Amino acid sequence: MKVVLACLPFFNHVFTPPLPLAYLKAYLWQDKDIEVKALDLETYYFRSSLINQNSSLYWDKIWNRHCSIKDEILDEFVQIILSEGPSIVGFSCAHSNFLSTRYVSKQIKKINPGIYIIYGGRYFCLRQPWRYQVAEWHKSFPDVDAIVKNEGEATLRELIETLKKGIKPTFCKGATIRREEQIIDGGARCLIENLDSIPFPDFKDFSKENYLADHIRILFSRGCVGQCVYCVENDTMGTFRNRSAQNVIDELKLRVRQGYRKFQVCDLTLNSRIDRVIEICRLIIKENLDIEFTFSEFRNAPHLTRDVFGLLYQAGFRTICFGTESGSQAILNRMTKGVKVETIEKNFHDAHQEKLKVILYLMVGFPGETEETFLETINMVRRNKNLINGITAINPTEICWGSRIHDNLDKYDVDKTSLLKFQDTWKSKEGNNCLQWRRSLAARMQQYFESLGIPMVNFVFDGNPIVPARAVQKFDYRKKVKKYMEKNFRQRDNEKFKLILEYAASLTIREKYIDASNNRDIMFLLEIMNIAQKEWRRLDFDNWIRAGCRIYNEQQCDNLPITELRQELPKDIKRGERFQILFRIAEESLPKGKYQLKFDMVNERQFWFEDLGSIPLIEHIEL
Predict the structure, then answer these.
(1) Residue 614 DSSP one-character state
(2) Tell me, what CATH number does 609's domain have?
(3) 8 A C-beta contact, residue 176 and residue 185
(4) What does the pLDDT read at residue 589?
């Protein structure tokens, strides 16, 4: 029986092979009567005639959530899968590749209805209270015969062993099964308690030359001991479980024999069981393995002492990424991070003293965030600026479906109706915590950190890049944005920098006057220049560029515009081209008072140019 396991492009397998497929293949191959082929279709896409291994073009196609893979490429994927002659096709689904997976699986079923199609992957990894939803979703996928929920190895193997006997499954724990017009939910399956019983991932179907990086992924554990309320991953793999230290060492030795000496540890938090990590480090040192861990994520915790960091460095760890999120104790408590700010700062100091590069994840706009708590995070980083090598993300808070915040919206003062759109568009009941405000916090934070010389580090677009040297030149936003970006950053270093080069504008006022013939309306004639590297298109649905104006009441302190205006572009605006546009501020539309006008360009449904670092034009009026 031939089984094909496929993963469609989902944005970072071009660096190193997909670990989930390698695990599933190894587990299925314990039954020698099952022939398994793993297909990483992301590498096919990267090498296709459409991309031709052009990294910039690849990221432009993959990362833009509005940009879909062309049907002709997806049809090629269909033929690649069918050419293997499978009886069963299993798809690894993530949110970023789900639509393309739907297209491919429907085409396969249309061409060959006898092929049994199974879905699984992160898309179907839900916290326990919400797993019943998978059966509801399954009803909408008539081409899908079974869906594996959460941890997949044992469930997938049971499904395939049943099919191998010539019997279509009618019930399976850990899966939903399509039986004619019914969906049968098998409920939960017990976790694989002994992770050492799982064979090492099998990467034989993935050629090293097809990937851009020289490292390989590895897991020391599954699950997470953290209880962060914004997270949807700390329960998706069930109870936290560790591999034994010797089991990890044996896999590291195998990878060294296969030609790898650099590793990315993919645990949600590596130090969930620090004693096991210490044991692994001591064995690495004892075995004298010449290896390097280029990336690993840690929780800030008291057990991370200077001695532990020193041991990590001796064992080959070089970069420590802390999921710090905030420097405000009040916000950390609301997140249930379970750590004190003093502990966080001590972790920074001790890791730095032991020569480890310190990278932070930060989050802004969490429910309950205020200007004061925001500044507490700013000040924490400022105090430790000489200990921090980079920031890998400043994320405006998203309320993910199925998170503990989502379960307790009233407790976190979230407007329930705002969650009917997208997870990042939520707002507080009072409306002061909204997407625009959260984005403004992220932009302010990044601008300030760059002025301190702390660089942004993006581990998505370079796999595990070398952390850049600390910046020595302050970021002059008003005069040198474009020049500085082009001089100091490679385009693929950070997607935000890439977007700044693509979306930047110069705005000046050519004339300001009062139209006395029409209730003393205030008129602004603006001259706008496209100083970016990308043409602005006026009728492009995915990149709909317009001129905009946000109006703020200067007597209000909520930093929210009271209204917004828009003007269409006169035509498509090429790079370096100028045009003029007229804004009318109707006197009767606003009560008497003082107002701030912020003129800027906007990519509708996505961002204002200011969100990416471009400088808006600010004017003040009094009515």
Answers:
(1) P
(2) 2.60.40.10
(3) yes
(4) 76
